[in-house]
UniProtKB/TrEMBL annotation:
One of its GO terms (cellular component) is chloroplast thylakoid membrane. It catalyses: phytyl diphosphate + 3 NADP(+) = geranylgeranyl diphosphate + 3 NADPH + 3 H(+). It holds the Pfam family FAD_binding_3. One of its GO terms (biological process) is chlorophyll biosynthetic process. It comes from the Eukaryota. The keyword Mitochondrion does not apply. It comes from Ziziphus jujuba. One of its GO terms (molecular function) is FAD binding. The keyword Repressor does not apply. Keywords: Chlorophyll biosynthesis, NADP, Oxidoreductase, Photosynthesis. Residues 60-90 form the FAD-binding domain. Belongs to the geranylgeranyl reductase family. ChlP subfamily. Pathway: Porphyrin-containing compound metabolism. This is geranylgeranyl diphosphate reductase. The lineage of its organism: Eukaryota, Viridiplantae, Streptophyta, Embryophyta, Tracheophyta.
Length: 470
């Protein structure tokens, strides 16, 4: 089971191979010229469909939330000729987050290297009994995991959306009035803070033709469309400034700790940032004990962070699975608002930005660069493409979490397995590029045997531990 899961995990699907020609159900074929993710280059639709034309203006879309999902969505919309409004309640928001991003995100989203604090090329996976396995030895010289501070990444993406024509509003979205038919606008209610410090802001309304909910795990847009709830983990993190000589150790190295002490169902981490480390952990099942798990994570790393000063304490929910409903009418959810975080790794930044972009592309395509109204069918194309591309990834990581994070013996087996070069290569390739890593049948067979061996040893170990605790 585990080896099958791992094999599927390492064989993640290729992300969104863009097909420039496709047919809309019952409608003519349109031709989209790919934008190659370059700034200011536009996505042009050159043949038509038959939804009502927008006259005297272009299609108006509001993006609620200016995290990676919202920033990426607003940029794509603005580039595609849509009149775009990005509403963010806090323009200097520091989203609680480990800030680890895969290499492919740097290229796909054209991120400048100076917004990446650290390039991690070494990762230590540390077992419940403190056996440390070095992973990352298979990385090529140019490969790394990027470490960002979210206040830097998010504001960069928002600024870029603005440069491309989006109107950025510093405001708190409150609610929306739904239209009575398919052509009348949504009326958004929000408090505008622009230019003011403190206070509750000015009450405002905005009329738009469509809405993208990119307002994170506690999404008000999701509530507005009655999207339903999801299970969530609570994740806790401390930013700790450590002495320079200690920082040298973490220069290009990150640590992951597993064990009942740091989390019953997740992992603890130490991720390096510009002048500090981010130390954190998470749990779905024992949320009330999160501070105890955090203390244990800090204790496990204590020699390496000795003399450190906590400069920020932060916590936030992480969705566990997609919401029951992700779109209604001309409103769609993306990123955490939709529930796009992978289990096992807790990764959500790339998936947020990617879903924001994918949803915006569906709107640009469906509206023919803002010239026509869109309908639910246009937004559904984004969901179909998303599910086709990423559903297997989410499922496999779910299985892996169940197999390997269920007990300390299983975690020991997991860490042992991570010592295998083939596992490392396949895992890193899948994480860094979100694409199929070509396998080697002989190595796959060895991996299957080794995985079973590790789990058998783990069970034997568990029996020994049970005897001790009797
Ligand atoms: C402690 C922790 C560690 C994590 N570590 C990692 C990691 O290392 N790597 C990784 O890939 N993922 C990580 N994640 C997950 C990642 O943070 C999320 O998946 C990601 O932030 C989702 O992006 P988003 O744009 O969908 O939502 P968010 O980043 O939550 O952005 C939502 C935005 O909407 C704004 N907003 C909310 N409500 C309103 C409103 N009513 N009006 C206006 N604006 C509003 C917020 O201010 C915010 O800017 C971590 C999460 C946590 C909690």
């Amino acid at each position: 089971m585990a080896s099958i899961a791992l094999k599927s995990f390492v064989g993640l699907r290729q992300t969104s191979p863009e097909n420039p020609h496709f047919a809309i159900q019952g409608k003519p074929i349109i031709n989209i010229q790919p934008h190659h993710h370059q700034r200011r280059q536009r996505l042009h639709i050159v043949a038509g469909k038959f939804s009502p034309k927008v006259t005297g203006r272009n299609l108006r879309v509001a993006v609620i939330g200016g995290g990676p999902a919202g920033g990426a969505a607003a940029e794509t919309l603005a580039k595609g000729g849509i009149e775009t409004f990005l509403i963010e309640r806090k323009l200097d928001n520091c989203k609680p987050c480990g800030g680890a991003i895969p290499l492919c995100m740097v290229g796909e989203f054209d991120l400048p290297l100076d917004i990446i604090d650290r390039r991690v090329t070494k990762m230590k996976m540390i077992s419940p009994s403190n056996v440390a396995v070095d992973i990352g030895q298979t990385l090529k010289p140019h490969e790394y995991i990027g470490m960002v501070r979210r206040e830097v990444l998010d504001s960069y993406l928002r600024d870029r959306a603005k440069e491309n024509g989006a109107t950025v509003i510093n405001g708190l979205f409150l609610k929306m009035d739904s239209p009575k038919d398919g052509t009348t606008p949504y009326v958004l209610h929000y408090n505008e803070y622009d230019g003011k410090v403190g206070g509750t802001g000015e009450k405002r309304t905005l009329e738009v033709d469509a809405v993208i909910g990119a307002d994170g795990a506690n999404s008000r847009v999701a509530k507005s469309i009655d999207a339903g709830d999801y299970d969530y983990a609570i994740a806790f993190q401390e930013r700790i400034r450590i002495p320079d000589d200690k920082m040298v150790y973490y220069e290009n190295l990150a640590e992951m700790y597993v064990g009942d002490d740091v989390s019953p169902d997740f992992y603890g981490w130490v991720f390096p940032k510009c002048d500090h480390v981010a130390v954190g952990t998470g749990t779905v099942t024992h949320k009330g004990d999160i501070k105890k798990f955090q203390l244990a994570t800090r204790n496990r790393a204590k020699d390496k962070i000795l003399g450190g000063k906590i400069i920020r304490v932060e916590a936030h929910p992480i969705p566990e699975h997609p919401r029951p409903r992700r779109l209604m009418g001309r409103v769609a959810l993306v990123g955490d608002a939709a529930g796009y975080v992978t289990k096992c790794s807790g990764e959500g930044i790339y998936f947020a930005a990617k879903s924001g972009r994918m949803c915006a592309e569906a709107i640009v395509e469906g509206s023919e660069n803002g010239k026509r109204l869109i309908d639910e069918g246009d937004l559904r194309k984004y969901l179909e493409k998303w599910d086709k591309t990423y559903w297997p990834t989410y499922k496999v990581l779910d299985v892996l979490q169940k197999v390997f994070y269920r007990s300390n013996p299983a975690r020991e087996a997991f860490v042992e397995m991570c010592g295998d070069e083939y596992v490392q290569k396949m895992t890193f390739d899948s994480y860094l590029y979100k694409r199929v890593a070509p396998g080697n049948p002989w190595e796959d067979l060895k991996l299957a045997v080794n995985t079973i061996g590790s789990l058998v040893r783990a069970n034997a170990l568990r029996r020994e531990m049970e005897k001790i605790s009797v």
